[in-house]
Design brief:
Chain A has about 170 residues and is mostly helical. Chain A has seven helices and no strands. In chain B, a hairpin with a 4-residue loop joins strand 3 and strand 4. Classes of the chains: A mainly alpha (about 170), B alpha+beta (about 270).
């Protein structure tokens, strides 16, 4: 129950941060960080994949609703939720991650958390930016936006991870 | 039956994933009427409420520039007025005006939320249906065309920005009146593209691009931008690069433009069989 409340708190906090601060960051049109993906990253390792998918859908839907971009964030976040178990299973050795815990650098090391975050965020941003533009024109321009935004999003997620309460 | 169930159970994650992505794609492809839905109306009200409070705080830091813009616009209007007053046509001879009287009316509004970094950018204004704003009205700043209202709630309205890849504006080259379609290609927020200009038209760098007035949304001759000289040839037409005159990153005050005879015009244009 307690952890449920904590995840609900993280959900609200991340979405408010995204909508009020990160949606307003405009850096030469190339950098759009989407830190709300962190919610998908920090859900417990043992979470059933269908709940993960539904939560991804909900997260994307709320962001979409308030950004006026119907469906784009849903698509990208569901994609991120779908690949997360695989990325975890590739990256995880039995000693670094236990089932009940939430992935973090505190438990599994900065290097591990960084690789995990970059991969999921990259998948999310690739889906997001290419579905948003809905074509392959300006391919390199879009790719550059993906790479730069992934770097900034990852930076903020790893930064926020340091401030998480670890109990 | 059992093997089907087994199959479904085995691939339940994959199936759920595909269903959710399909829902997302349906949402994306039907989003053109999304701004009229009730759900978005609620989100818009919440958004507008929060954005207005944030904007109020940051407004003071932009007062100096806002003042300068208003002074520049006042000067321009004063000059026009002086020209009109000394024009003998208006002064002494009665004029037969084919448009008959005032056609467009203006309402000032404040931009409370804006973006330039998406493919589909939208702007929120602090005026809504209570102030008479309706969907389909044009929006311009003192420097140029900004967008078209696509959704209104009681106190707020959402504008599809010119910086939205779905936006098309009928615009013409002021010097020779050749018209084409002005649209944004989603890359640099300072530049848009004017397409469908015939090959033989002679263009100069710096030519002014204005609204054509062929749609009932904007009056003719409203500034949109200037030609940079860059052009692409292809097919029967050329596409010209346009430096937009409105700086979308610094929008503060805008005008919502209402067309008083729009209904009449639209009804007539619909009545005529084509």
């Amino acid at each position: 129950m307690n952890s449920l409340l904590r995840y609900a708190g993280a959900f609200v906090l991340l979405i408010v941060l995204q909508l009020l601060i990160f949606n307003n960051i405009e850096f030469s049109g190339y950098v759009n960080p989407f830190v709300y993906v962190m919610f998908i990253l920090i859900l417990p390792v043992s979470i059933p994949s269908w709940i993960l998918l539904l939560l991804s859908f909900l997260t994307g839907f709320v962001v979409d609703l308030f950004s006026g971009t119907m469906g784009v964030h849903v698509f990208a976040t569901v994609m991120a939720g779908f690949v997360r178990p695989w990325i975890l299973s590739v990256n995880v050795t039995s000693e670094t991650v236990e089932a009940e815990m939430s992935p973090s650098s505190y438990r599994s090391g900065l290097r591990w958390f960084f690789v995990y975050t970059v991969t999921v965020v990259l998948v999310h941003h690739l889906a997001l930016f290419f579905v948003e533009i809905f074509s392959l024109r300006n391919f390199l321009h879009t790719l550059l936006r993906v790479v730069l935004s992934t770097a900034v999003t990852t930076f903020f997620i790893v930064l926020f991870d340091f401030f998480r309460p670890h109990r | 039956m059992r093997s089907l169930l087994n199959f479904l159970l085995r691939f339940k994650t994959l199936i759920l994933f595909l269903v959710l992505e399909a829902v997302a794609l349906i949402m994306i492809t039907t989003s053109h009427n999304y701004h009229q839905t009730v759900l978005y109306g609620v989100a818009r009200s919440v958004n507008g409420f929060v954005a207005e409070r944030i904007e109020r705080g940051s407004y003071y830091f932009r007062l100096r520039r806002v003042n300068e813009e208003l002074m520049a616009e006042n000067t321009r209007l004063k000059r026009q007025l002086a020209r009109a007053a000394t024009s003998p046509l208006l002064g002494f001879i009665p004029v037969a005006d084919s448009v008959s009287g005032v056609n467009y009316t203006y309402l000032n509004a404040r931009v409370i939320s804006n973006s330039v970094n998406n493919q589909k950018n939208f702007i929120t204004l602090d005026k809504g249906s209570a102030q008479g704003v309706t969907t389909g009205m044009g929006v311009a700043s003192s420097t140029g065309v900004v967008g078209v209202v696509v959704g209104v709630s009681r106190n707020y309205s959402v504008v599809m920005s010119l910086l939205n890849t779905d936006f098309r504006l009928s615009a013409s080259i002021a010097r020779n009146d050749y018209f084409g379609s002005l649209a944004w290609n989603g890359t640099n927020y300072r530049y848009a593209r004017l397409s469908e200009i015939p090959h033989h038209v002679r263009i100069n760098e710096g030519d002014t691009i204005v609204t054509s007035g062929y749609s009932a949304i904007f009056p003719a001759g409203l500034m949109a931008g200037t030609l940079t000289g860059e052009q692409e040839r292809g097919g029967d037409f050329i596409t010209l690069e346009v430096l937009l005159s409105a700086d979308f990153k610094r929008l503060t005050n805008v005008y919502v433009i209402g067309n008083l005879t729009r209904k009449e015009r639209e009804i007539l244009e619909e009545e005529v069989p084509r």
